[in-house]
Design goal:
Elements: H1 2-19, E1 22-35, E2 40-53, E3 58-64, H2 74-84, E4 92-99, E5 109-121, E6 124-137, E7 140-150, E8 169-178
Antiparallel strand pairs: 1-2, 1-8, 2-3, 3-4, 4-5, 5-6, 6-7, 7-8
Length: 180
Amino acid sequence: MINRIFILACFIVMQVQVRAQIFQTQNGKIQFKSDALLEIIEAKTDKLRGAINVENRTFAFTVPVQSFKGFNSALQQIHFNENYLESDVFANATFVGKIIENIDFTKDGNYTVRAKGKLTIHGIEQERIIKSILVIKNGNLDIESAFTVLLQEHNILIPKIISQKIAEEIFVRIEAELSQ
């Protein structure tokens, strides 16, 4: 009897996995910009990984914090990782949630959607709604999004002495191509 239940449960799980359409990326791009009074800091990475489950409109994205490159100096990158984002302790930034709008992922087109979920940076989780553009074309999915992150909301503390060199609000831009 237990074997039959186990076999039935495996069959149900396999059916759900077969029907679920998943779009994935392993090399999405993220760039950020701190535009403070005395200094502009920019960095980017192409290490964004993630997936969207079309059936239930859920998603999960993650990026290794240490993968960001392009700072004004090597010392600035070290301070970013060691002093501010503490990437040895909080290795990844993540965004996990659900697409609010009901869209047809089988139809080519441009769709403006809102992604509602938990944005976790520096170990601090914040519920966010982030507007994105989804472009569906020939069975592939492109995502573009731009939003801001308030350092204070993620307990990223900037010493007063350098507060004019690091903005309190960071501009983030994401681009990713996802495929099945």
